Amino acid sequence: MIRLLWILFLGSFVSSIEAASGFSTTNIFPLGPKHAHSSSIVECQDGSLLACWFYGSGERRADDVLVQGARLKKGGRQWGEVFVMADTPGFPDCNPVLFVDAHDRLWLYWITVLANRWECSQLKYLRAEQTTGSGVPEWNWQGLVQLKPGDGFRQIMADRFNELGVNQRMWAEFAKPYERLLLEAASDPYKRQTGWMTRTHPLTLPSGRILLPLYSDGFNASLMGISDDLGETWRASSPIIGLGPIQPSVVRRKDGTLVAYCRDSGSLPQRVLQAESTDGGETWSAAVDTVVPNPGSSLEVIALRDGRWLMIANDTERGRHQLSALISGDEGKTWGSKRAIEPMDSVGTDFGYPSVIQSRDGLIHLTYTYSSAQGKSIRHCSFGLGWLSGK
After folding, report:
1. Confidence class of residue 17 from pLDDT cuts 50, 70 and 90?
2. What are the respective helix, strand and coil percentages of the chain, to the nearest 5?
């Protein structure tokens, strides 16, 4: 009895600390044995939150994988029941991304993996006229995002490899060089047009243009899907080429320059990679290392309304055992301060693939994969700007 009272007191004490600091975390659903990964979160028109993720017995090789979701009412502390957002029977559905457009319509982008290979993925979407409601959104439109990167794709890849000076010594004598293999693949229209995958939120520019960040495990590269008609049609930007820049997250500087921060899927040193565009996302510089460590794990960056930039990332060279909030006061030129988000308890061991937004009330909300020996879940974390500043 005394132990029970102590546990209740401790829980209340921790909750009080969280309330005072403006920082709180909660699992969206109980820990379980199945794989729950690659979440995305948005704020709905009524201030509630909607999150999604993929769930099943594995990833691309597990045909039972589907997209799940849940809702959190405004001001609530407990997420509602989990529901199915999208399911292609017999195929894995992965990497879902939620987006609210300028007309408050809700979009779900995700991939259906064909032949159990990432490079064969099919990019799909669902659309609902309203974000709010209970349970599954009322989808009223669906379709495919089909891109047609042009013949210049190969030449841009060759130019960037030449600019970066790809180190051929990292490849075995009996194997073709990495650069040559990719350039051969880039000459194939079918390979250029398939396998583009989602991971992070789209970005709406002041012009109304929507940029949908995409990447390819086949090419170990990224690009932007570009729509100038509110998502009705799409075309491909030029590729973002480097030594493994994938899963880009895009943010806009006040002068209009776009910066794409990418997961490092290449050689040492393991760093967040960065490319820039000065023409609205049409063309991109080569992706080069920043100073921020990256263990080959997804990250997301947003511009806060006070002008600072916020990066949520695994700031390590190996492993996803810590998750941090990094702050830039000069639009990404430097990342001068950070605060630890995870681990926040003695149970969690792996934290990855964050999705982050700033809600209309100024709070920061993020979801991410939470793994432990007891199972996996998707965790929701929220905090105020005061916590972010260490106050």
Report:
1. very low
2. 15, 40, 45
Q: Are 56 and 65 in contact (CB under 8 A)?
A: yes
pLDDT mean over 142-152 = 96
Tokens of 380: 């929701």
Six-digit token pair at 222? 């990224």
Mean pLDDT, rounded, for 274-297: 97
CB atoms within 10 A of CB 62: 16
CA atoms of 87 and 94, how far apart (whole Å):
10
CA 145 → CA 50, 60, 118, 122, 217, distances in Å? 23, 19, 16, 8, 18
What's the average model confidence in pLDDT over 243-249?
Answer: 96
CATH ID of 23-388, from 2.60.40.1500, 2.120.10.10, 2.60.120.890, 2.60.120.10: 2.120.10.10
Element of type H or E holding 210: strand 210-216
